[in-house]
Amino acid sequence: MSDDRRKKHAVREGTAAQASETKPTLKTLAELTGLAVTTVSRALADAPQIALETRLRVRRAADEIGYHPDRAAQRLRTGRTNVISLVLDPHEEILGYATSMINGLTEALRGTPYHLVITPHFSDTPQIEPVRYIMRNRLADGIIFTRTEPSDERVRLLLEKDFPFICHGRTELATPHPYVDFDNYAFAYQAARKLIASGARKLCIVLPPDRFTFAHHMRHGFMTAIREEGIPFDIPTEVTLDSKSDAIREVIYRRLQQPDRPDGFICGGEVSAMAVMAAASDRGLELCRDVMLVAKQTSGLFDQIRPRVETIYEDLAEAGATMGRLLLRRIAERPPVSELQALHSI
């Protein structure tokens, strides 16, 4: 090894040792890789003008010494936080909802400068509060939220302020907005058609709370199938998909005592489906013979249920991944809103 190379190697070893004791900086990475600070910065930002080999070398060096960008300095310099905030409502109906959504989002953000931060929303506070808090304190570059309403004030506010967002669900607002949604009309319609084809004579559906848009979609799909066949139906008003499973079980248990009891049930989630199954069992009724059921499946739970229950799958991880990709595009490119909308079919 030449003297010059020995000196350069010693500098790098000394820099690496120093990095293990103090917080690494761009200058640390520059000394370690022998590149200019500006080149290192652009390589970490994945700038296409920097050769891929150089970008990979800088990233490996950053990982080795535990380098992380100083978010405060980055925010002052660029006005960006490199944060995406997911506002989540805790509810027990959809099994694995948060986990699946987060898995999809993190997959979409992998390899980008963006980090995912979860912001909880609790039912005793207005839905708009966490959104206002994030915007007011500039805690994120984009917001994702769920459980939209027909005239959702979060969507109106974000559109008015031109703040990047995408929501899981649609609204009935006149102004188009970014969204990713599952076709709940088709779910309820196809579920009803399946039950009717299996011989069900009276259908019952447990709907979401009426304030949510997807409740209207499910009701419309269900009633379309009912009107086509002209058969009796029942929509319980005492409970919704947000009700506790015990409450749903009790209501269905009473329904199954009636002379004209429903024999075909549509459930928008696995928890309500299990409540229906428990009520039928408590009544001494046999699933798939006395009581038929179609459930929306979002986890692997019903793969292990016997007898097998008819299900229609909603891929929440794919919904999360799609929302992540579209929001990143909205932040970077500002394409037409029509290119930031996705409706996942059954």
UniProtKB/TrEMBL annotation:
Keywords: DNA-binding, Transcription, Transcription regulation. SMART domains: HTH_LACI. Residues 24-78 form the HTH lacI-type domain. InterPro entries: HTH_LacI (IPR000843), Lambda_DNA-bd_dom_sf (IPR010982), Peripla_BP/Lac1_sug-bd_dom (IPR001761), Peripla_BP_I (IPR028082). Coiled coil: none annotated. This is LacI family transcriptional regulator. Pfam families: LacI, Peripla_BP_1. Residues 1-22 are annotated as: Disordered. It comes from the Bacteria. It comes from Pseudorhizobium endolithicum. Residues 1-10 have a biased composition (Basic residues). Gene3D superfamilies: 3.40.50.2300, lambda repressor-like DNA-binding domains.
